[in-house]
Amino acid sequence: MSNENRSIHNFDINLICEYFSYIERQGPGSPEVTLKALNFIDNLTDESQIADLGCGTGGQTMILAQNAPGQVTGLDLCPDFIDLFNNNAWELGLQNRVKGIIGSMDNLPFQKGALDLIWSEGAIYNIGYERGLKEWNTCLKRGGFVAVTEASWFTPERPAEIESFWLDAYPEIDTIPAKVLQMQMAGYIPVASFILPENCWIENFYAPQVAAEKIFLEKHAGNKMAEEFIANQQHERELYDQFKEFYGYVFYIGKKI
Ligand code: SAH
Q: Using a 6 Å CB cutoff, which residues line ligand 1?
């Protein structure tokens, strides 16, 4: 595989966790977009159980908790992110309602039918959108909601360069109608889908990485894997700039039938 097409999956998880702990968000998004998605979800009460899967350091979780009632559990594989997550919850005075736990989204620690809402921004790709939607469904109550962001094609066809990058990085990328149908087939009523605006990528995800890259490269001077990882991030950023009319993240919101 050429370096150009290396995907994030080829790098050491500890290195990835360290790098992304330098920035507030570990994926594209914004408070506005989180709130927009939350607007499609009704019936939440103080008793509601909410889970944010692949929560990272909790950028979106805290917005969610400040704007929705109920108990919120953030779950992530990376222990450093969970530490930062729980610190953030304390600093915002949310510690009684918001808890971060270490765990994997492919083996959820929730009872069948226990959850009112499953949230996941920029993370379901780790186990795949179709698999995630199907497996998580059992933890939701009937009438509960799922809200996830997922890489999607905006057009039926696209240039070969960006197509081959994504087919290597995440072959499950598909068009919006295909993703909506998959949501329906996984046992949900597709309630809404909308494209995340460019600022979610450029200002909120890529711009903060410029400073993070500098710190990271200084710390890991001479480490080939670290250098390749950063080169990979930069390549991904350039591709986004060049091909952003063809792909991006889409919020998909569904209600369990
Ligand atoms: N939702 C956050 C983080 C997105 S990055 C945001 O939007 O900012 C993807 C996250 O998924 C990372 O925090 C990574 O540690 C986590 N992750 C990767 N594989 C996972 C798994 N199997 N179970 C739980 N979390 C996982």
A: 25-27, 29, 54-56, 59-60, 75-78, 81, 104-106, 121-123, 126
